[in-house]
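Input for the complex:
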Amino acid sequence: MDGQYANDPEWADVTPIPLDDGSNEEVMPLASIAYPPEYIEATSYLRAVMAANEMSERALKLTQDVIALNPAHYTVWIYRAKILFALNKSLEEEMAWLNKVSLKYLKNYQIWHHRQVLMSSREHFPTIPPKELDFLMEMFAQDSKNYHVWTYRHWLVRHFKLWDSPREIEDIDALLKADVRNNSAWSHRYMLRFSPREEDVPDSGLANAGDMSTTPADKGRLAIVDEDMVDAELEYAQKAIVLAPENRSPWWYARGVLRAAGRGLGEWEEFAGRFVEGDAVKSTHAVELLAEVYAEDGEKGQKAVDLLTLLKERYDPIRKNYWDYRIKQIEVDV
Amino acid sequence: MALVSGPGRAGGATSDQELHTQKHITYITKLDTVRASFQSYFEAFIDYELEYWLTEHLRLNGVYWGLTALHLLGAPEALPRQSTIDFVLSCQKENGGFGAAPGHDAHMLYTVSAVQILVTVDALDELEAKGKGAQNGKGGIQKVGSFIASLQNEEGCFMGDEWGETDTRFLYGALNALSLLRLMDLVDVPKAVSYVQSCENLDGAYGVTPGAESHAGQVFTCIGALSIAGRLDLINKDRLGAWLSERQVDKGGFNGRPEKLPDSCYAWWVGSSLAMIDRLHWIDGQKLAGFVLQCQDPNAGGFADRPGNMVDVYHTHFGLAGLSLLKFEGLEEIDPV
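Predicted:
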């Protein structure tokens, strides 16, 4: 082999291990890849140092080369993390490098898992590093709905107990100000305000969702509620709805808030009514909410049916069968 | 994505409502013989629009997707059976798991694909006799089951590999493969069920981890897992059905989250999820089929994520699976789970 590593005296003592993809055997690899030579060489040296479990600077450098060629190579990341801890390397430097890689490969899973593995080290990161959240905002500037980044940020909140950190809610406010339809940001906001915090309670999207003894009606309901916070969140949702009445996210956020607080939809009747004047509808979500409120009030069943019929026939005919189902449910109840 | 995107592009003509069966068969079998260039393998990681599922080594998955697509098209013999089996077995590692390709480390995703392929071509007996850990022609299946079971963690979820990344994709895959191998008793099913339930959100849908935003791909994995575990009764079907049916946008296609663009693969993720909770009729099937058909390349075959984009084997598989679900004429019927 004649390549960068083969010609490097630093690597002279290592015998590369070639890829065995079955192509030398009778089995024809059904889907073999035409690897470029530099990748073939780098991974053959990688196999050799991994087989010897070598924890060294040169091996660290090699992992970087392999990642640059293929960031989705899942094994190389594991090995890299092991070396970093074994050599007690500066994880701040690693994060700085990782930031660049993350911005380049926005959809990669391994990068974010690697970040989480490093950040999990209480020894290196007893508290959240000051620039961590700045970097996440930089990622959101590229794609404010990047699922990997949101999942990682959720993990950070739990790991460092950041539910009430002012920075969390400030960032969410800023993202929603930039795009009030960002459902990821609404989802994170709900997590900050209403997800379980106790060490011995497993995390869940709805309070008690994973507890089999909780009835569906009680899922998402909190035992203790800060009513002032609930009122403030409902007001926040209303302001967002006024900006974009057809935006689903704040309507569902409000439903979640009311549910957490054990309060009914009825208190939103007046607000929702502002978006529905006869047949003039500014928000189908308002129509749906009003219909539910009326349906609960036995005497207003017909009004509920009329509203759902409006959705079925005029505003959302693509889901005709769904609205029919909802209408039938009310008729059954009535 | 590896096996490639391209070379063709989706036609995108709204008038085209015909399924180009023979073209798709040719497209998939060519992937096998021509091979994708390494270049396109990498470009996929960088450029790929679809946010999920894709950014990994995908070789073995690619074979599975191509194979299923051929079965749906009624042409299972288009990929040679014995070399398919030999290739799959050559991806197995000593611990019983499978890697993305020969020489790669074992991972849950590829192990699941391997089991699915072997079941599809009816070759579990070869695994039993010739797989790792088999002695005197026996034990290969148990070895794979043990590998999968070893990846369940304390919370009930499953890891992708020893490295510890957890994801409901892995949980679904584990239950799927174990049920195909008839080895469900190797794992703690109630604990896995409880974990899935903790991923439920206020909108009735599910996220990748507890409390993570609802995502149509994750909904599929979560309720697929509950379906295999026989616990569909735990789902709030009306609320989830409402969320899922809202994924249909004006053009007829589905998106994966609110306010995102439609993508042909969600015809499968959303459609099959609706089917599992008996609410597929809540959406407009004709409009959905129309959108998926616009994602075809009518000349060279294959499907893209949306009209005008490059075709690839992933979207070809899921586009066809979605059409099959809608009982589209000329396709074999598919089981939503």
